[in-house]
Each structure stands twice: as structure tokens, then as C-alpha cells.
Amino acid sequence: MMDRAPDTAQLYSLFWNQSGSNADKCFVFSFGKAQQKNEDGEHYLNCEFCAEDGEFVECRDVYIAKEQWKELDAAMRNFSLPAYSVPDPYLMDAVCSRVEICLTDNGSRFTGCYDGTYAHDLYDYLTAFIRHITG
Prior knowledge:
alpha+beta; six-stranded antiparallel sheet; 38% strand
């Protein structure tokens, strides 16, 4: 995931926001702290996206068990994403797809920003993971 983070660093949070002119291709995935609850040190999912069948999926403060979080952490190490760059402001139909991954190790945090425009495998993994944890 990140070159400067030690190999022992663990996933702290994952945030992916994609916006563009096609509303069905816009989404937000947030894995980390709860948005509506007090900080309790646990991990939660918040997301909005359009599923393959056209159904709008919205999850708020869905608890992620420690085993599932470890699974997400391990899976994220298999994805390689290019560095994020702001889309051309003169393109009317430009897609902005920003992935922010934060790792932690011994109290230090390492955050990287990546371009998710062509991260179809990551998108497929995350939507399958969300279906798995929301059952």
C-alpha cells in the first residue's frame, strides 16, 4: 500500500470517494471510525453506492468485527494504486476518484492518497466485502 509505512503497520482507516457526471458511478466508502456514535475504538462501515442490480445501498455505522477488519487489512495489501492527482478542472465529465488509506504503527499514522479511477478490482472486492459483513 504505502512505501513509507513499516511492514508492521496496520490499517486504521480507508476512505474512497468517487464523483462525476454519472450518478450511478458515484460512491463513498468509509471504513474506520463511527460517524454517528461516540469513539469506542472499534471499526465501522459507512457507505453509499449503486449496486450492480441498480439498487441504492446505504450503510451507517455498521460494526466490523476484529476478524473482518483483519481480513480487510490483509486484502488491502494486495492492491496497488497510482498516486492521486486532481482531475483537469476544464473537463466537464471528469471523474474524481480519491482513495485515502491510513495505516498506524506504534502510535504513528501514515496516510496515502491514491487515484481510484481504474481500481475496478478494489471496487469489486469492497462491494463483496460489504455484502459479506452486512449479510
